[in-house]
Amino acid sequence: MIKHRFIRAVTDFKKQRMAVSRTLTDTLGPNADHLTMQVKDCCSIDELKTLIEEKRDMLQSALGARGKAFWEKYKEITE
Questions:
Q1: Where are the domains of the chain?
Q2: Residue 60 to residue 13: CA distance in whole angstroms
Q3: Is the torsion defined by CA of 66, 15, 55, 71 positive or negative?
Q4: d(CA 27, CA 67)
Q5: Whose CA is closest to 21, among 50, 53, 48?
């Protein structure tokens, strides 16, 4: 499993998922609680990206002026 980088991929995803949750909390405060629980339930990077994309309009509205910084950080985390 290590040879095929499977374990590393899982570890990387967990770090990405935690970083997205942290960024949401840092940006939205307690208002991010429900969404961070949904992020925690994601099992893959694709699932995480789908969730965030589905919430894009809500996030744009909630983030306001902080939106640009959030989306830049999100892109950095998930690439």
A1: 6-78
A2: 24
A3: positive
A4: 9
A5: 48
